[in-house]
Amino acid sequence: MTTALSNIAWISPFVSIAKGEDVSGNIQTIIKTIGLPLAGLLVFLMIWQAAASNINTSLGQFPGPGDVVTQTKGLLSEHFTEREKAEAFYERQEKRNAARVKQDPTYVPKTRDYTGKPTYIDQIGTSLVTVLSGFVLASLIAIPFGIVIGLSANLYSAFNPVIQIFKPVSPLAWLPIVTMVVSALYVSDDPMVPKSFVTSMITVMLCCLWPTVINTAVGVASIPKDLVNVSQVLRLSYMEHVRKIVLPSSIPMVFTGLRLSLGIAWMVLIAAEMLAQNPGLGKFVWDEFQNGSSDSLGRIMVAVITIGLIGFLLDRVMLMIQRKVSWDKSAATR
Amino acid sequence: MNPLLELSDVGIEFPTPKGPFCALQNVNLKIKKGEFISLIGHSGCGKSTVLNIVAGLYQATQGGVVLSGKEVNEPGPERAVVFQNHSLLPWLTAYQNVELAVKRVFKGHKSKAEMREWIEHNLELVHMSHAMHKRPDEISGGMKQRVGIARALSMEPQVLLMDEPFGALDALTRAHLQDSLMEIQKDLNNTVIMITHDVDEAVLLSDRIVMMTNGPSATIGEIMDVELERPRNRIQLADDPQYNKYRQQVLSFLYEKQRKPDTDAPAKKAADSDDSNEEKVDKKTGEVA
C-alpha cells in the first residue's frame, strides 16, 4: 500500500516524512510539487478577478472566480433537486400502480419515465459517453489502418495525401454533411440512440482518426530493421509478425497517437454538440448563451472549467493505461 | 566429403539512382560441417552482405548458395543469425525471447515441458540462468548478446551466422564471450560463419579465416587455415610463434595488400575542415562589417 502511494509524485514526500526520512529535503520537494502549482493558480485567480471586474457585457459583469463557485453550487443543487423530484415521481407512480392493481387485478401497470430536463451532471455524462463512443470507434478504425499502411511504404505513399488533406478539417465543416447523411441513413421508428448523438459521435470520430492513424503508421514503419530480420529468420507469418513484433513494438507510438486523438475528440465534441444539439456540455453552453440571463456567463465559465478538467483527466487516464500496457516505461512519463 | 554449405560465384548488385552498384562478385566458398569460419575485411567491404545472402535476407543477383543440397532463397531458422546489436525484443524477458524462437522451430516436435527444458538448457549454456526472467533493458550489453546467442543456438541451426557479435562490447566482456563461445563450440561443434573486424578474435576462434578485398565489387582475397590445437587459450597463445604468424598474416593482408585508399587521409581531411571553418568565420565577419 505504501509503495503504491509513494508512486504518486506529490504523496511520496509525505510518506517518506512519516517514515522519518530526510525531513528538510522532503519539505523542499513538497514546496516544489505542491507549493509552486498552487502559487501559479493563485496568481491566475487574481488576474482573473481583476480582469473580470473591469469587463462589462450586456449580460452584466464578467464572472470572476467567486461567481463561478456560486454557479457551480447552483448547478449542483439543481441536480439534486431534480433527482429528488424524479425519485418522488417514481414513488408516486409506483403507489398509484399498486393501488390500481389492488382494485382491479387484471390491470397491467404502466410505467412512464420521468421527463424532467437533464441536469448539468447528466449533460457531463452524455458528453463523456458521446466522446468515448466516437473515440473508440475512431481507434478501432485507425489502429488497424495505421498498421496496414505502416507495414507497406507503397500504401503509405498512396494514402498519405488523403490523410494530410482530411487531418486539418474542422468539425464545423464536417457537421452539416454528417447531419444530412445521418438523417438519410439512420431512419428508424424506434431509434436506439438519438440522431444528435450519432451525428456528434461521427463528427468526433472523423476529426480524431488522424493522429492515431499517423502515429501508428510511423510507429510501425520505424520498427528496427533488426527486429524485422528476426521475424524473417523465424519465418513468422504475416499475422504472427503483426501480433508478436509489430504491435508490441509500436505500442508507445500508438499511445502517443491515441492521447492526441482523445484530446482532439474532446475539443471537437463541444463544437459538435453545440450544432447537433446533443444534450451534453456543448448544448449546455449554447443554451446558456441563447438564454442570456445574468447567470449565463457564470454558468458558461463553469462549463469552461469543467471541460478543461475533464480533458485533463481523460489524458491522465490514457497515460495510466499506457503505463499499464506499454513495455517502454520511459516513453510514458509525460 | 561434401561441403555442408557452398557459395558458388555469388555476386550482388544494388540498384542506385546512378545505375547498379556491384557490392560483391565471384565469391566462392565451401564450408564443411563443424567448421568455424571468420570473414574479415575493412568496413564496407561487403562481409555483412555475404552473411545476409547466406541468411537469405538478401538475394544474390549472381550465383547462389546451397545448404545441404538445397538452394537458399529466403531466411529460415536453420540459418540462425546472431545480430550485432543483440536485436532482442525489448518487451520480452530473456526466457521469452528464446521461447519465441523455440516455439516457432519445435512446435509439434517438443512437448511444453521439453520446450521449457530446452529453453533453460540454452540459457544455461550461455550462463544466463540467473537473469532468465529479466528484460533486455535490465541486463548489460554482454548479457544481451549472450541471450542473442542462446536464441540462435536454441533453433539448432545447421549454420550459425554471427554478424560482428561482439563488436559493440568492451574488450573484457568481449574476451569473456569469446571464451564462452569456444566452450559451447567444443560441445556442440556447430558450423559457424562469423563476421569480425578484430584480428585476434578471428585467429583465436576460427578454423579458417576468409579475408575480403575492398569494395566495390569486393570478393575473397585470401583464405587462411588456422591450425592451432584446441582448446585454445588466449594467454598461452599470446606467446605462441605460430599464432603470431597467423596474426601477422591477416594484418599484412588488411593493412598492406588491402589498405583502404583513404586511411592516410584523416590528417588532410582535418586540415580541409579547418580551412572551411576559417572561410565561414571570414564570411561571417564580412557580413558583420
TrEMBL record, chain A:
<feature type="transmembrane region" description="Helical">
    <location>
        <begin position="245"/>
        <end position="276"/>
    </location>
</feature>
<dbReference type="Pfam" id="PF00528">
    <property type="entry name" value="BPD_transp_1"/>
</dbReference>
<protein>
    <submittedName>
        <fullName>Nitrate/nitrite transport system permease protein</fullName>
    </submittedName>
</protein>
<feature type="transmembrane region" description="Helical">
    <location>
        <begin position="135"/>
        <end position="157"/>
    </location>
</feature>
<feature type="transmembrane region" description="Helical">
    <location>
        <begin position="296"/>
        <end position="314"/>
    </location>
</feature>
<dbReference type="InterPro" id="IPR035906">
    <property type="entry name" value="MetI-like_sf"/>
</dbReference>
<dbReference type="GO" id="GO:0055085">
    <property type="term" value="P:transmembrane transport"/>
</dbReference>
<keyword id="KW-1003">Cell membrane</keyword>
<comment type="similarity">
    <text>Belongs to the binding-protein-dependent transport system permease family.</text>
</comment>
<feature type="transmembrane region" description="Helical">
    <location>
        <begin position="34"/>
        <end position="51"/>
    </location>
</feature>
<keyword id="KW-0813">Transport</keyword>
<keyword id="KW-1133">Transmembrane helix</keyword>
<feature type="transmembrane region" description="Helical">
    <location>
        <begin position="169"/>
        <end position="188"/>
    </location>
</feature>
<keyword id="KW-0812">Transmembrane</keyword>
<dbReference type="InterPro" id="IPR000515">
    <property type="entry name" value="MetI-like"/>
</dbReference>
<dbReference type="GO" id="GO:0005886">
    <property type="term" value="C:plasma membrane"/>
</dbReference>
<feature type="domain" description="ABC transmembrane type-1">
    <location>
        <begin position="124"/>
        <end position="318"/>
    </location>
</feature>
<feature type="transmembrane region" description="Helical">
    <location>
        <begin position="200"/>
        <end position="224"/>
    </location>
</feature>
<keyword id="KW-0472">Membrane</keyword>
From TrEMBL, chain B:
<dbReference type="InterPro" id="IPR003593">
    <property type="entry name" value="AAA+_ATPase"/>
</dbReference>
<dbReference type="InterPro" id="IPR050166">
    <property type="entry name" value="ABC_transporter_ATP-bind"/>
</dbReference>
<keyword id="KW-0547">Nucleotide-binding</keyword>
<dbReference type="GO" id="GO:0005524">
    <property type="term" value="F:ATP binding"/>
</dbReference>
<protein>
    <submittedName>
        <fullName>Nitrate/nitrite transport system ATP-binding protein</fullName>
    </submittedName>
</protein>
<keyword id="KW-0813">Transport</keyword>
<keyword id="KW-0067">ATP-binding</keyword>
<comment type="similarity">
    <text>Belongs to the ABC transporter superfamily.</text>
</comment>
<keyword id="KW-1003">Cell membrane</keyword>
<dbReference type="InterPro" id="IPR027417">
    <property type="entry name" value="P-loop_NTPase"/>
</dbReference>
<feature type="region of interest" description="Disordered">
    <location>
        <begin position="255"/>
        <end position="289"/>
    </location>
</feature>
<dbReference type="GO" id="GO:0016887">
    <property type="term" value="F:ATP hydrolysis activity"/>
</dbReference>
<dbReference type="InterPro" id="IPR005890">
    <property type="entry name" value="NO3_transporter_ATP-bd-like"/>
</dbReference>
<dbReference type="InterPro" id="IPR003439">
    <property type="entry name" value="ABC_transporter-like_ATP-bd"/>
</dbReference>
<dbReference type="Pfam" id="PF00005">
    <property type="entry name" value="ABC_tran"/>
</dbReference>
<feature type="domain" description="ABC transporter">
    <location>
        <begin position="5"/>
        <end position="239"/>
    </location>
</feature>
<dbReference type="GO" id="GO:0005886">
    <property type="term" value="C:plasma membrane"/>
</dbReference>
<dbReference type="InterPro" id="IPR017871">
    <property type="entry name" value="ABC_transporter-like_CS"/>
</dbReference>
<feature type="compositionally biased region" description="Basic and acidic residues">
    <location>
        <begin position="256"/>
        <end position="289"/>
    </location>
</feature>
<keyword id="KW-0472">Membrane</keyword>
<dbReference type="GO" id="GO:0015112">
    <property type="term" value="F:nitrate transmembrane transporter activity"/>
</dbReference>
